[in-house]
Amino acid sequence: MFGDYSIGDLGAIFAMQGFAGLILFSVYVLMALGLAIIFGQMGVINMAHGEFMILGAYVTWMTSNAFQTYLPALFPGYFFVAMILAFLASGALGMLVEWGLIRHLNRRPLDTLLATWGLSLILQQAYRSIFGAREVGVELPQWMLGSKQITDTIEVPINGIFVMCLTFLITAAVAYVMYKSRWGRQVRAVVQNRVMAGAVGINTEKVDRYTFGLGCGIAGVAGSAFTMIGSTGPTSGQLYIVDTFLVVVFGGAASLFGTIASAFSISQAQSTMEFFMSGSMAKVLTLLAIVAILMMRPQGLFALKVRK
Amino acid sequence: MADEKDQGLHSPFRRKLLMGMAALPAMTMLPRTSFAQAPATAAVNTTGLAVTDTEVTVGILHSITGTMAISETGSVQAEKLAIEQINASGGVLGRKIKFIQEDGASDWPNFAEKAKKLLVNDKCAAVMGCWTSASRKAVLPVFEQYNGMLYYPTFYEGLEQSKNVIYTGQEATQQIIAGLDWVNKTKGAKSFYLLGSDYIWPRTSNKIARKHIEGHLQGCKVVGEEYFPLGHTQFNSVINKIKLTKPDVIYAIIVGGSNVAFYKQLKAAGIDLSKQTLLTISVTEDEIDGIGGENIAGAYACMKYFQSLDNPNNKAFVAAFKKMWGEKTVIGDVTQAAYLGPWLWKLTVEKAGSFDIDKVAAASPGVEFKGAPEGYVRVHENHHLWSKTRVGKAKLDGQYELVYETADLVEPDPFPKGYQ
């Protein structure tokens, strides 16, 4: 397939293709981060993760409309406000859900699975009733559209750069909170031994609530960012959920580093193969490889070593 | 459920009530014969359908919940509008249409179950419904077993024909061939990159497109053909491949949420649709709502109807639709095809002089609807419609501008020879 092209052309395409892989990597990390926190720290499988993302997307859509109507002059910067609002909205809903639903199902992972799946259906229908069954179009400020010309032949999409920066910032922030802050220590203590953590004075219920809220909030930010690259409709969250679980499970549920490593390997495999074969076949091969690896390493790529 | 649909229903209903009351005094003055126009029920309904002296029941069977609600909402709205208009103009054989709406819930076995309910329990004289091919395939045996009549609105892959179905959308060859000829002739396109979501309609359509490009267009070739799982959201790799192969035309049959991702990423990757020709058969005005006009402006779509069509029928239709469902609603190809369903059924019943399914099926070929928003349609022997094929260019505001239409109606050919 490369016979007719000059070396320069091919170099440019491979550079852009490498960049496409990095964008996909950022998207995967951003999707999976919230789920990894909730799954890893609380053992809760949040099937409604995609719906929390879409809440963020709808918040972005509403913010965009509000800015267009009331503050058209500030429209170019609305996206940052929207992401903060998306974080707050999804986080608040997450905390409410934890308080009303999840905490009653403590230590019953299969029940939380079912309950959050039900929640995802309820949220989907709620979005449909509130925002209508049709997809909504989120308008972006001009500077976020289009691509950046790096050399004559290499162009990279601006929204891709944006997602990469965002992912880097959020991952750094989460890593800092989890591994450096006092609250992060409490979270890790609860994960390792809930009873002992309670005994030394950690309010485990509160830790759970904020952990769940943080996970959902990050999902909201992800949803907000994905309005740049995907659709916003009542069931759009379903488009992401499979890939998200794949990344988290493959990486090893309890490990933040594992999530990142798994997102990297899946995204690179996927985007490289997609270049050489059809999209469907690339997906099939990626899934087969993951299944094979998980059969050999059921705990995922990186498992936290704890005494059981 | 405080849905937009429900709110929309109230005001026309109230309007109708008021109109009805205003007409009361006038009615007492009418000669009695005007009531006797409707033929006797025993004569027009010999098979026990839900027909009374004043009413006839039809079914509406679409997904109003689940993934497909995005697409099917417009069809439901169009069918309700058509039914209301038919009732306002005197009904069918002097009988008002009453509809029973069931929710297919985007679940194909559920479609079959609801279809059975509409035919067996409710004895509907006709059903307007289904959207995806999968749902149509699920209900088809039910309609054939219990002898019902289905009006199916979506453009689809063809390869089907049933006595019990009238296909009011285009089958694949109607939608594809004229568009490819046009792009070849006016844009001088020689190389095509075919894209699609991975299921039967895009695959069959691209197969027809490939046969036509390679067999019927001089010196043209297909430089790539790719499919993506439904719901795929990452198109950067294929966009790079497109940049590498530099096709004259990107031929895209991507559906659902993937559509939005595809066009947003195409724009973000710097592919300017005013320079790169893109021809799609899967993006109607409905989809542009989600994609955003700025992301798809400049692309061409090939189908039979655009909201912007400039003819008196369409102007009245668009005005009535917006009055019933809100100023902001848009009307896509399938919505218009769904609107044809109740009207074609009314015309056929009146031609047959009977509600009986067999008589309606037999009377269908040759039925013409001159009030169609798309202009004029006629039912073919094979229960598909003769219709014109049109090419539109997407504009920033999410509407299409008509750039080409076939001079004559295109014959439906669900089993195209040499294209399979």
TrEMBL record, chain A:
Q: What is its main location?
A: membrane
Recorded protein name is Urea ABC transporter permease subunit UrtB
Natural source organism = Rhodopseudomonas palustris
Q: Which Pfam families match?
A: BPD_transp_2
User: What is stated as this protein's family in its record?
Assistant: Belongs to the binding-protein-dependent transport system permease family. LivHM subfamily.
Q: How does it sit in the membrane?
A: Multi-pass membrane protein
Annotated keywords:
Amino-acid transport, Cell membrane, Membrane, Transmembrane, Transmembrane helix, Transport
The family database entries (PANTHER family) matched by this protein are listed as: ABC TRANSPORTER PERMEASE PROTEIN, BRANCHED-CHAIN AMINO ACID TRANSPORT SYSTEM PERMEASE PROTEIN LIVH
Q: Which gene encodes it?
A: urtB
From TrEMBL, chain B:
Membrane-spanning ranges: none
Pfam families listed in its UniProt record: Peripla_BP_5
Q: Which GO terms describe its biological process?
A: amino acid transport
Q: Which InterPro entries match?
A: ABC_urea-bd_UrtA, Leu_Ile_Val-bd, Peripla_BP_I
Q: Which residues form the signal peptide?
A: none
Q: Please report the name of this protein according to its UniProt entry.
A: Urea ABC transporter substrate-binding protein
Q: Tell me what organism the protein belongs to.
A: Rhodopseudomonas palustris
